[in-house]
Automatic annotation (TrEMBL):
Family: Belongs to the ependymin family.
Source species of the chain: Branchiostoma floridae
Lineage: Eukaryota, Metazoa, Chordata, Cephalochordata, Leptocardii
UniProt feature coiled coil, ranges: none
Gene: LOC118425740
Name of the protein described by the UniProt record: Uncharacterized protein LOC118425740
KW Signal (keyword) present: yes
Keyword Glycosyltransferase assigned: no
Amino acid sequence: MAVLSFLPVLVIYFTLGRVEAQQPCCTPLQWQATLGVTYGQAWIDSNTAQAVQNLTAEFAFDWNKRATAMWMTGTQYSPLVPGPLPVHSAYIWDHATGVMWTVDLARKSCQHSELSKGPIAKLCVADDAMHVATTHLGPSQMVCDIFKFKWPVGEPGFPAIAAATVARNGCTPVRIGIVDGSPTSGGFFFDARVYNMKEGIHNTSLLSPPSYCTHGSNTTTANESISPLTKLFSTL
Ligand SMILES: *[C@@H]1O[C@H](CO)[C@@H](O)[C@H](O)[C@H]1NC(C)=O
Ligand SMILES: *[C@@H]1O[C@H](CO)[C@@H](O)[C@H](O)[C@H]1NC(C)=O
Ligand SMILES: *[C@@H]1O[C@H](CO)[C@@H](O)[C@H](O)[C@H]1NC(C)=O
Ligand SMILES: *[C@@H]1O[C@H](CO)[C@@H](O)[C@H](O)[C@H]1NC(C)=O
């Protein structure tokens, strides 16, 4: 009996040990990629209003310059509006200057809001992440790990949950999903498939707002960001 109850403990110990050996796993310090994004938001109630966006985004993460950016093109679907709406906008989270830019690229109007100033966190699978599965992707059967961990947005004390698929070799992100909310209070989901990831920033314009934001008269100041999508990378 003593031996029998000892065995499962050993198994658990070795499983934890193997996962811990892969930690921490962080993306390169500078990279850009194309994201295929599905983003949805639901408000309870008004008969549970919702909106879904189907987007292609150019994404850039630059730890050295303390900035993250997402330039999006796509369509928003919502029963709140008569038809699908085109989305053509950009978000730039610039922690070096302490400004978040929201740019309406179609109207050429810009909004800046305050962001914490200072160093940013690396983009990592959290140390206490749970290893969910191992998969093999693509013709080369690249080994990927799927992790689940807490993502620092959401109501205070209730962080969102992230599920990330990353290549075991190099921690290259393959897919990331972030979910926040509950059936009673509404919430959002963000699902991004990562294509053409390149290490380094190959297009530095991605990390700066268009010149009409800094030189024109079309820039307004917002006190708080409106959409949870704008908060996703603001707490890095
Ligand atoms: C979302 O966009 C992709 C790429 O443009 C397209 O193939 C897909 O059909 C779209 N999905 C919906 C629900 O509109
Ligand atoms: C660089 O990014 C900007 C902003 O998204 C875009 O307008 C421009 O076409 C890109 N340049 C290249 C060479 O991809
Ligand atoms: C300011 O915004 C208006 C419409 O909102 C647009 O027509 C105009 O081109 C913008 N001005 C500049 C300098 O980009
Ligand atoms: C932003 O805050 C300032 C000062 O607290 C206030 O005067 C202004 O009306 C607010 N602007 C908006 C758009 O809420």
